[in-house]
Amino acid sequence: MPEQLHARVEACYQLAEAFFKQRFARPEVSFKLRGQKAGVAHLTENKLRFNLQLYRENREDFLRQTVPHEVAHMVAHQLFGPRIQPHGEEWQLIMRGVYELAPQRCHNYEVQRRKVSRFIYRCSCPEGEFPFSAQRHAKVAKGQRYYCRRCKVTLQFTGQQRVE
């Protein structure tokens, strides 16, 4: 687990406590986040999830901007309750007042799209090629059937696979 990231979470909480003169419950910190999001605050679970890949690729900005962004969601929730807007005035107040940062809703990190396998299915139509995801292909293996909307024939796996 990245010690710098944990330390930054703690530093953000200490800044908020000094600013608001009250204690805040510390969240569980997880690195089980993938895809395009850099971080997510699960407010009712008191849990922060961070994208480890994006952290590694954008460490400096991640620590400067993303960590305070997510901690600000947690602090705003604890201060103002569950009915506030995620990036509303309360969250913006914390970003500007406590962390002295511009309240940016989204990161601009470059996100690598992962390669996915497609399993090729066909019907009796001349142009009838259907690329299935691994999940859908697994459902077929368990007995699920899919039909062509045009010719009404059950789609059959061709044995071909491609990576996109």
TrEMBL record:
Signal peptide: none annotated. Coiled coil: none annotated. Residues 7-158 form the SprT-like domain. GO terms for biological process: response to stress. InterPro entries: SprT-like_domain (IPR006640). This is SprT-like domain-containing protein. It comes from Ectopseudomonas mendocina (strain ymp) (Pseudomonas mendocina).
